[in-house]
TrEMBL record:
Belongs to the bacterial solute-binding protein SsuA/TauA family. GO terms for cellular component: periplasmic space. It comes from the Bacteria. This is ABC transporter substrate-binding protein. Keywords: Signal.
Amino acid sequence: MRKRFCTALLGCLLLVFTAACGSGGTSTVKLAEVTRSLFYAPQYVAIEKGFFEEQGIDIKLQTAWGGDKTMTALLSDGADIALVGSETSIYVQARGSKDKVINFAQLTQTDGTFLVAKEPNPNFEWQDLKNTTFLGQRVGGMPQMAGEYVLKKHGINPETDLDLIQNVDFANIPGAFASGDAQYVQLFEPTASTFEKEGKGHIVASFGKESGHVPYTTFMTKESFMTNNEKTVKSFTKAVHKAQKWVQEHSAKEIAKVIQPYFEDTELEILASSVDRYKSQGSFALDPILDKDEWNNLKDIMDEAGELPEDVPYKTLVNTQIAEEVIGD
């Protein structure tokens, strides 16, 4: 009897100990993404494949729908970590924020938009854009700045050579192009491929290929959060890096199947072709390190667009220490 009692007691203690360890080893991280985009495939892979869970992180994902809204969520503690363009951290720094926003892990390394024409143009040349109506992106955002950077690179002045439209909200741009008179538009995937399939447009060029490597979307957090939660930030980065490697090692179709729950209205075939397009042009970062050349390219693009508020040094808003440790582990 006494032996059975001791055995039962030992079992109860083991259960209590296990439960306590499990609850104590999990950190909840509020993650705000700037928009819902297939461009962020590695992030969704990390969630769906359980890579964050393996690191003891419970992700609470929210979609902010805009860079300004994303940064507001981060600065007001509505989010712990934000996935957004690195230019937003520069804007915050220029406004004199006492708590710097630190870029600590890069997710995408090229522009994610494609030039879509209303009519087929298999022999497209950038000069074809002159004297046309171009539906662009929001002023001050990376899609618009990278787009203008590429246009100028090809000798096109967006202000004088185009009828440039920039007063349409991001979410309404596809519909405005389909129903309006614009002859060209910048679109992300899978919208660009969906338009092709439906005959609403035709992909003629990639801004990602033309603009070079840039920290287009990175994970960032306030310096105070990073200081007080270094272990959590490192665990988060480990999960991201594992997802980056998984994406590189698996086919576009396998990736599409994993991330499909985030794009329920998009056919698997379109998701796969879109992922393949991003993979083939090297849009997904291979590791979480944001290097100095990419940072300087970002500033050049912002400066060219007249949107660089001040020359913020690389070391001021970029911390690669954790990413380097993760890669070295």
